[in-house]
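hiii so um. not sure if this is the right channel but i have a protein structure encoded as tokens and i wanna go backwards to a sequence. like what aa goes where. can anyone help
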């Protein structure tokens, strides 16, 4: 690519060959964690080592036991301690003399800005907590937040936490149907949403989607609150029965104060629905003590955050990354966290770098899919801005290839900033595998060793550790404070999905299986190879192929569908659909459009198939299972592996022909 040929050729060549990078002395000197002895310290004192994380919080009642493992795999952390997450993220900073420090810097797509000091955040969180109470929300009621990147979203999250009402945030890009599914699953009777938001200059009608979703909720919804983001550019929806305007509620509760509710460490802080192997999203349950301690600890040790920092994670709060590393981790540490409403390429491709310069960002955390897009656009965009305030860079969500890593290192970090490639999941609550930026050598493409105290391994099907260089399954054989506690109201599925495959329950050996493939090198560095279940990762967004398949099968005229992830330059993976039609229906463009629209309606635009191939049959094993591996190979234009176990091997060449004719 052009960017590799321009500039100093020798320097580029050196960078291309370099396999290991060290943090600079300057970085190490100021790092929160810079002594490698922390690995031994955690290993020797496990699980007591986790008091280091818990000590970052203020507890109402101190806990007496770090880990209770009497009912594996239902682990409990700091169980008899009590605390409040909103108090820890807001009040204590106000009380400790930081009331005028900026908590949230928000920038809208059009360049409008809003700044919340910790005092401002305190006021709004209290007022909204009072409003929620007034609407009837009680402790342990699940409040659904279907909101885009507006500051009212973290305010609402913290207000829920204040009164002990777990939130369930539904990504604003999800469809009305996806909202209804999640509200039904959680029997959530309260919704906070927004009239709309801006995308590439145009207002989007979010309220219409929210209302459509509400009409499909099976139970009574007691109250909906609507944030007015669009003002005069709005779509003019009237508030319906039980719907309230955010601003009016806030005025009605101006100056109100709500004492933070003392929550047990194991009380639920929030639910987050995520995709798994079956068609139904899983309600991942996170708790107050362990989750908050873990996100604060990893923000401190891996993101190296200091209260004085301006920190920006460019994820959306609708995903776990935004929960842990825009809201809870950074605010628990009293940092300034940046929120941006828009996309990286609007109004131009320099937008993010403009913001890094404008806010003098110290630490920046993003996804490899974004870095691949920046690479494609070229280094001239970041080069226009002063990025010299950056101290540390991070990535999350999917594997980053060494070339993208080096591009990020050179063109964003100016070869000065360490990069942390952080592997984790919705279920893990926080980062699990990554280098500590002030300690370890970085190897582009490899996330790094397990964090201190984390028992991550790469094993074969028999559970034995693989040799260096061999591929296997990633497992975690020790619990950690940030772990999910269960799937909401479904303990059985929790055990089945995460603990069945690699545990030996009779021997009392419980092993968590994240459903990722990985390999490990001689230094214990783990390289993540990707999901081994039916989950695709599109632009760092986790989607279940079964959910997409059931959306496609819901389209009139479709008999059967198989969905796989195929390689994609920017998105990492893209959705490839193979579809069998009912007799009497033709595989034409109109049908294709209806299928794409069906997926859009059921899930949202992120899940739309990149390609739809019509076929009279799908490749199946003799036992009738669809051979997805073959479809993946077809999607990627790869040479096909073994087809001898197929019941219908002849179908493969038909599909290949169809697919290449697309
Ligand atoms: C993938 C996002 C490689 C992985 C925080 C995991 C990664 C899934 C990395 C979880 C990484 C996340 N390198 N792959 N650094 N980080 N993944 O639940 O497949 O949306 O299982 O959580 O993303 O996605 P989720």
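sure thing!! here u go:
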């Amino acid at each position: 690519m052009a960017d590799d040929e321009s500039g100093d050729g020798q320097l580029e060549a050196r960078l291309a060959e370099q396999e290991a990078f060290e943090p600079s002395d300057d970085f190490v000197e100021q790092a929160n964690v810079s002594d490698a002895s922390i690995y031994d310290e955690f290993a020797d004192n496990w699980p007591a080592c986790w008091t280091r994380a818990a000590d970052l919080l203020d507890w109402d009642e101190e806990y007496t036991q770090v880990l209770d493992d009497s009912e594996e795999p239902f682990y409990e952390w700091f169980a008899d301690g009590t605390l409040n997450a909103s108090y820890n993220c807001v009040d204590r900073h106000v009380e400790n003399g930081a009331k005028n420090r900026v908590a949230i810097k928000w920038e809208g797509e059009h360049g409008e800005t809003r700044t919340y000091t910790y005092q401002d955040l305190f006021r709004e969180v209290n007022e909204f907590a009072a409003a929620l109470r007034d609407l009837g929300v009680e402790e342990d009621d699940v409040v659904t937040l279907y909101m885009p990147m507006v500051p009212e979203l973290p305010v609402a999250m913290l207000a829920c936490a204040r009164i002990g009402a777990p939130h369930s945030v539904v990504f604003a890009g999800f469809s009305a149907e996806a909202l209804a599914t999640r509200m039904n699953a959680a029997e959530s009777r309260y919704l906070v949403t927004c009239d709309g938001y801006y995308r590439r200059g145009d207002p989007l009608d979010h309220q219409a989607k929210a209302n459509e979703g509400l009409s499909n909720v099976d139970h009574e919804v007691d109250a909906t609150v609507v944030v007015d983001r669009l003002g005069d550019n709005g779509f003019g929806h009237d508030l319906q029965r039980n719907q309230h305007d955010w601003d009016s509620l806030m005025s009605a509760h101006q100056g109100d104060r709500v004492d933070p509710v003392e929550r047990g460490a194991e009380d639920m802080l929030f639910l987050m629905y995520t995709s798994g192997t079956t068609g139904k999203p899983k309600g991942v349950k996170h708790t107050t003590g362990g989750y908050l301690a873990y996100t604060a600890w990893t923000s401190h040790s891996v993101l190296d955050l200091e209260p004085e920092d301006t920190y920006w994670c460019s994820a959306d709060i609708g995903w776990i990354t935004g929960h842990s590393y825009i809201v809870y981790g950074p605010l628990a540490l009293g940092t300034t966290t940046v929120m941006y409403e828009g996309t990286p390429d609007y109004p131009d491709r320099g937008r993010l770098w403009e913001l890094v310069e404008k806010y003098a960002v110290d630490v920046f955390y993003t996804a490899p899919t974004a870095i691949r897009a920046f690479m494609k656009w070229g280094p001239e965009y970041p080069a226009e801005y002063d990025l010299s305030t950056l101290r540390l860079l991070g990535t999350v969500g999917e594997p980053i290839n060494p070339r993208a890593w080096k591009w990020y290192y050179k063109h964003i970090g100016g070869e000065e900033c360490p990069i942390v490639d952080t592997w984790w999941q919705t279920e893990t609550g926080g980062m699990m595998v990554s280098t500590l930026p002030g300690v370890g050598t970085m190897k582009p493409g490899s996330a790094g060793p397990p964090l201190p105290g984390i028992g991550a391994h790469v094993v074969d099907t028999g559970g034995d550790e693989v040799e260096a260089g061999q591929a296997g399954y990633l497992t975690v054989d020790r619990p950690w404070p940030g772990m999910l506690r269960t799937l909401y109201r479904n303990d059985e599925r929790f055990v089945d999905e995460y603990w069945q495959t690699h545990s030996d329950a009779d021997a009392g050996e419980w092993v968590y299986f994240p459903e990722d493939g990985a390999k490990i090198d001689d230094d214990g560095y783990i390289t993540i190879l990707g999901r081994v279940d039916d989950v695709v990762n599109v632009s760092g967004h986790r989607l279940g192929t079964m959910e997409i398949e059931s959306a496609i099968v819901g389209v009139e005229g479709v008999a059967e569908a198989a969905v796989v992830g195929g390689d994609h330059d920017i998105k990492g993976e893209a959705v490839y659909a193979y579809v069998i039609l009912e007799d009497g229906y033709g595989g034409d463009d109109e049908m294709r459009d209806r299928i794409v629209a069906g997926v859009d309606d059921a899930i949202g635009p992120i899940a739309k198939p990149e390609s739809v191939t019509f076929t009279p049959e799908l490749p199946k094993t003799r036992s009738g299972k669809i051979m997805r591996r073959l479809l993946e190979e077809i999607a990627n234009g790869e040479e096909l592996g073994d087809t001898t176990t197929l019941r219908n091997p002849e179908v493969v060449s038909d599909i290949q022909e169809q697919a290449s004719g697309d």
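oh and The CA atoms of residues 20 and 443 lie 5 Å apart.
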